[in-house]
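MOLECULE: protein
FOLLOWS: sequence and fold
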Amino acid sequence: MDEIKYNSSIDYGTPKSQSAKQVTLTIDDREITVPDGVSIMHAAAVAGVMVPKLCATDSLEPFGSCRLCLVEIEGRRGYPASCTTPVADGLKVHTQTPKLADIRRGTMELYISDHPLDCLTCATNGDCELQDMAGAVGLREVRYGYDGENHLNSVKDETNPYFTFDPSKCIVCSRCVRACEETQGTFALTISGRGFESKVSAGNKDFLDSECVSCGACVQACPTATLIEKTVIEAGTPEHSVTTTCAYCGVGCSFDAEMKGEEVVRMTPTKDGGANHGHSCVKGRFAWGYATHKDRITTPMIRKSIKDPWQQVGWDAAINYAASELTRIQKQYGSDAIGGITSSRCTNEEVYVTQKLIRAVFGVNNVDTCARVCHSPTGYGLKQTLGESAGTQTFDSVMHSDVIFIIGANPTDGHPVFASQMKRRLREGAKLIIADPREIDLVANSPHIRADYHLKLRPGTNVALISALAHVIVTEGLVQEAFVKERCEWDSFVEWRDFVAKPENSPEALAEELGVDAETIRAAARMYATGGDAAIYYGLGVTEHSQGSTTVMGIANLAMATANIGREGVGVNPLRGQNNVQGSCDMGSMPHEFPGYRHVADDATRALFESAWGRPLSKEPGLRIPNMLDEASEGNFKGLYCVGEDIVQSDPNTQHVTHALENMECVIVQDLFLNETAMFAHVFFPGASFLEKSGTFTNAERRISPVRRVMRPKNGYEDWEVTTKLSEALGYPMQYNHASEIMDEIAALTPTFRGVSFKKLDEVGSVQWPCDDEHPDGTPIMHIDEFVRGKGKFFVTQYVPTTEKVNAKFPLILTTGRILSQYNVGAQTRRTQNTAWHPEDILEIHPHDAEERGVKEGDWVGIASRAGETVLRAKITERVQVGVVYTTFHHPESGANVITTDNSDWATNCPEFKVTAVQVSRVSQLSDWQKHYKTFSEAQIAFAGKKAEAVKVS
């Protein structure tokens, strides 16, 4: 039997079945064979027979309420709903009979009798399922008048900034309610009332104030104009679409940019998107307006001094000025006096040409990336233990997990589409262990989900926790020794086993340090080791520590010891924060590695790139960002090419960063907006948004997905073209006509990308590396038969407490994180209506700590550390523990990184953002830093012809 070829443009009414058993039935005299478990409606759609429907859609489980999809089955009484009736061998089904036509018309007549007849002026005219079904059933008149009770005067809810809820057009099909439950897992919507009084309700609140997270699932599911995007109301129905990839988090959702000419009308999640399967979050679905925001800089600018006003110039003048300054600096100060920074927001192709420029044209390896600032311990730790610097699974693997262990991650805020899939598995019965100093939403605010264990450890003690868990697994005989003997280096295991078995690594010995009850640790360890297929998911709460690399290796040790690696449902899974963190590392953004994680000192690798690029290349590792800044402060590093990154806001110890930039003679910033780093720049190259470029992103599961240009760049060029123009001005032409040619070069020089091309991505949608001759279709699950390094290697993970200590002067620990509505430094999301949910960063503080300091809800509080101080508004909550305070870092005027120190991971220099000793006190005015920032930023933005918004404290 040939496999069914599904068409993503068709709604099959009910979901597919994964059953291997085949069933043959007859539908309208056509014999059709389908997998057992599908509905008659689904089987009919596969056969090309579209049964009328309103409450059914193939992204949701069958519901059977609209009564349009009734069919006749020979030998059975009545008219069963085809959406809820499963197929069976030998069934003879009729979907079109006079009686069925009569029933369907009568049903549709009832719907229309309580529905506004404003089709010609309705925003969904021509794109409305109710309208389509009225035509499909042949409805030509409505016998019932509007004299009786109806819902036509129901009041609209316009509170949500992105969509409208018009209950007068609601047919109470429950698709929005079911989408909120099944797809998103928020359960924000319900059907309240009974009979004629039935209506969709957001918990008896308006949408903005409800539990709704604005993921768009309800809007996507609605078959009428009840829930509709405001952009569609304003702009009208789209006339064509282009499939591309979201430029926000590391999930890498596929979207259809629905267009009118070059205007985006809406972004809808692609049904067959490999990472998101038709789901989305508020950022990807709605927060794309920044691409056309008035703050966009679209003309190049130059200036001699950062105290001078900006001068708008043409591209040639800006490129030539930048090239001449870089050349001058190298002649005056030496070749090592310049370098560059790539960004995890850029495409693979843009990152590749930037690091190529730095290595082949600048002649140095002084290239670094924000990916090191967040996830370099992942690359180091997984490379050492497993042999590959990436996560082991596909996102879909979580649906096979029996135990899910989340440490140092907040998926519902940071990776919401994957979190929805994870929550679905948890509702099906998977067990949940969370290790986090704070009560994340999965602990505090997830309906129908309960964390079996919340290990509320103190910030900075991750390694101690991993050691305590390992101690239980080893001393209670829970190690899978057969797996270890077959797949791992036995000597390394024995050394690790003997280490973690020591009494000082027991839960009892470490309980006080951790702040977690010993028996709770033991129970969690047993669950992970014996509860079935167990998967570990972690984020920046693991990596952004002084022992980030140690924790990653410890996590890999646990997975190997319990045989939880190399198949579906298990693995070690880093949740990358930005859209292309994985890709920026893959493309050689680290100062010691070429693309594909090959060391610059390796003669064969270097010879390969020298041959391809036609230039001699340095074998000496270059400077990381902290080294560049240190050298700049000392007067030795003078020129920086910064593409798509904002180190002033995102890197630790802001005062040190700004001092270093002030010491440089040529800072080139390439970005969409005049960001915080651009305020210290001498050249500004306007960048292109993801809607204006072609390329690829690589998400957290190693999935390479296409980014397709949907409009012309507002600055005139895609970002890779700007970099190649700079290269040409420096005497090294890069002969590319399209981003696809850059990927061809990447594939030719990088073994894990050998089989990747734009042509392949057009054919299959996306592919997970390694994609090569051995794995032409990609590699969803890593390390199945053996580890990439051959035998897995265990590492001793000695707990070394951070040097950042609390004391009488700084008695609290500050830790940081993200929030759903905002993204990273906020440059994009702050320029959208997402600010309705998060207009400012706030400081969460426990009631006990607040009372000690006389702090009340909403008070302005000063937060002082050894590095600096800032002022935020207080939120009193028990989600943080006593002695710990928490904030986000999305608004530059908040100055979160003014107070973080320059402590970093011992192996990778990844900053220790998650542990800063602070004191909190009530204040009545901005900090000195904020006052300086306000004055300086207003002046800088005025230089560019913009108006700054003042930070107000009342």
